Structure formats: structure tokens, C-alpha cells
Amino acid sequence: MFKILSTITLLGLAALSTTYAQSSQPVQAKVPFPFVAQNLTLPAGNYQLRYNNASHILTIRGLDQ
């Protein structure tokens, strides 16, 4: 159940970031649980998401570290 919820939340954040990608404004999100991205476990915290239309890459940057 937790894995499904975290996956849905992360996909929602990714979809939201692509909505804002047209204006190239990063999206900031407070994630209340650890999650996995690209086989790397990231801790709960504040993150900045930015999508690059040219390379189709979603960048996740931790703001707490």
C-alpha cells in the first residue's frame, strides 16, 4: 500500500512539473516520506523538480541538504 501511494504521489509531482515546464519554472514539493528515484532512495524533505523539454529529463534536487 505504501509503495503504491508513494508511486502515485511521485507520478503526480512529475505530471505537475511537466505542466509548469512550459514556463521553465521549477516546482517545489515537500515529500513527507522517503522515496526511490533512479534506484536511489531519497529521504523525506523539500525537493525542487525541473523538467527539461529538450532532453526530456526530470531533475530532482534536494533543498534540505
Q: Helical content, roughly?
A: 25-40%
Q: What distance separates the N and C termini?
A: 28 Å
Query: Which strands sit side by side, in order, in the main sheet?
Result: 1-4-5
The shape is globular
Instruction: Characterize the main sheet.
Output: 3 strands, antiparallel
The rounded Rg comes to 12 Å
Class from helix and strand fractions = alpha+beta
What percentage of amino acids are in beta strands? Answer: 35-45%
Mean pLDDT: 81
Secondary structure tally: strands: 5
Provide the low-confidence segments as ranges: none
- H/E element string? HEEEEE
Descriptive report:
The protein has one helix spanning 2-20, and strands at 27-31, 35-37, 40-42, 45-52, 57-62. The chain is 29% helix and 38% strand. The chain starts with a helix and ends with a strand. A 3-stranded antiparallel β-sheet has the order 1-4-5, with helices on one face.
